[in-house]
Amino acid sequence: MALLTMTASITAPTLAKFFRGRTLDLEARRLLAMTRNGQNRAISEGIPIDLWVDPTGGTIGLDAEPSFEKEDPRAVQFDVDSGIRIDVVKRMVTTTTAGVKTNPLQPISKASVARVNLTHPALATFRFLPDGTISETSPEKLRLTGRDGVSLWVALSKDKMSYEIRSTEN
Known about the structure:
Strand order of the largest sheet: 3-2-1-7
Low-confidence stretches: 92-103, 108-113
CATH class: Alpha Beta
Mean pLDDT: 80
Order of helices and strands: HEEEEEEEEEE
CATH superfamily: minor pseudopilin epsh domain
Helix content: 25-40%
CATH topology: minor pseudopilin epsh fold
Distance between the termini: 50 Å
């Protein structure tokens, strides 16, 4: 019995650290799965799908744009583990020579662009379009940080067609 007690006391801190790391990895993979689900739904249903993130409330959800359906019966929402902090990194805005701020990936003329309705306009929203692309207004990266300060990034891939998990910011 004493041997069992000593073994448990030696391995307990290591196991606790292992499970905390697994929680961070699990949440990053769940978020990545949500991005893929949103992109697949947008393609298969032919409507924009929004993945919204509430960093302060620790909630993430996926639903169809409200202008197409009043209520989305396939909408999903989940709470991120309370030990995980989420930080949203917006796309970088550059300044042109005229001093006007523009996004290099966004068209300058907005006359032909349809109005966007969001279910959660105050929150960061990843927008997946019916052709499989990701909207230029979608966040570039999300940083998930665990209790121990270790971070994982869910970031736009180099081809800008999907998101991927990274262990560093770059």
